[in-house]
Amino acid sequence: MAATGMLKQGHGAICSIEGLGSNNMVQSKTILYGTTKHALTYFMRGLAKELAGTNVIAGRLSPGMVLTDFIKKTPDGHPSEVFSDEKFRKTFNILAFKPETVAKYFVPRILNNLKNDAQIAWLTNRKAAWRFMTAGFRKDRLI
Predict the structure, then answer these.
(1) What is the strand order of the sheet 56-62 is part of?
(2) Largest CA distance in the chain
(3) Which residue stretches of the chain are H helix?
(4) % of the chain with per-residue pLDDT over 70
(5) Average pLDDT over residues 57-68
(6) Residue 57 has what DSSP assignment?
């Protein structure tokens, strides 16, 4: 485990990326993915507890909805059926961001974080509410 090496060197930080399932949300056709993200959140919170009092920290990144191949394609590479689901497309276009937008937010915060068990969140409830309120005025559509 990475934490073992970091403990030997005397310092370090481990971050994981949360996703659908991390917050107990259950969405059909994503059960395996959601299960792994739920387990990862549990693991990282537990790891943070085990690392308490050391110079190694563990934390989580919560990006919200991001346009990735997971959204765009099925596991076998075909276009995802989400493109034909108008309700999903509408919600996704309101709440989702490009990976590079989220990365620009995360990188400095990861590098400056000194807190164990930190959750750095991009799509907060406040930001999501703002996106819904201003959706009619924006033209940025991802899918």
Answers:
(1) 12-17, 56-62, 119-121
(2) 53
(3) 2-9, 31-51, 69-72, 86-95, 99-112, 125-133
(4) 100
(5) 95
(6) E
